[in-house]
Design brief:
Largest sheet: 6 strands, mixed
CATH architecture: 3-Layer(aba) Sandwich
Order of helices and strands: EHEHEEEHEEEE
Distance between the termini: 14 Å
Number of domains: 1
Strand order of the largest sheet: 4-3-2-5-6-7
CATH class: Alpha Beta
Helix content: 10-25%
Strand content: 25-35%
Bound molecules: inosinic acid, magnesium ion
Shape: globular
Radius of gyration: 16 Å
Structural class: alpha/beta
């Protein structure tokens, strides 16, 4: 068997990411001014994006997390979403912004959206660092995205492949 080293093709630099965070945080701060905003980060992938995003908002926001997983150690969704850990904060009458690293099939967010809608929030919107639409299966609207791409498996800035590469400061296309 021939083993090849995966190639990391740069997509976004640390500096480009920084500017995108400033821009999106500005939009969110305008849209949610005066509203009870609750950011719900989807672990693990969103941990870096959420921590940068919240520090660039000019409005107050509460933060909580859910843990969702659908991939295991593969590059495609299993289609079954496990939710081993959910929020502690009461979401009723709050304006929820679901914060995700990357939307691919959309199954995770579609499932989480339905789950939180049952808890009677004031609103639910979706903020993803990357919107990748080639394999979209569920009809989800990504309200805020820093970067849109058609295809490719991306890593870095929180995004992993089999739990590796999350700590890279930029975004890379992982070519096997
Ligand atoms: P979805 O349910 O197919 O939209 O999958 C969303 C989740 O799959 C994301 O939160 C990521 O954890 C993972 N994922 C999807 N595409 C990629 C990728 O290109 N790189 C790393 N993780 C990905
Ligand atoms: Mg992942």
């Amino acid at each position: 068997m021939i083993m090849t080293t995966p190639e990391l093709v740069p997509i976004l630099t640390k500096e480009e990411i920084h500017q995108k965070i400033i821009d999106i945080a500005g939009k969110i701060s305008c849209d949610y001014a005066g509203k009870d905003l609750l950011l719900i980060g989807i672990l693990k992938g969103a941990f870096i994006f959420l921590s940068d995003l919240v520090r660039h908002l000019s409005i107050p926001a509460q933060i909580d997390f859910v843990r969702a997983s659908s991939y295991g150690d593969t590059m495609s969704s299993s289609g079954t979403i496990a939710l081993p850990c959910t929020v502690q904060i009461d979401v009723r009458n709050k304006h929820i912004l679901l914060v995700e690293d990357i939307v691919d099939t959309g199954l995770t967010l579609s499932c989480l959206r339905k789950y939180f809608l049952l808890q009677e929030p004031a609103s639910i919107k979706i903020c993803a660092f990357i919107d990748k639409y080639e394999r979209r299966e569920a009809d989800v609207q990504v309200d805020y995205a820093c970067h849109t791409t058609h295809e490719g498996f991306l890593v870095g800035y929180g995004l992993d492949y089999a739990e590796n590469y999350r700590g890279l400061p930029g975004i890379y296309h992982l070519k096997m």
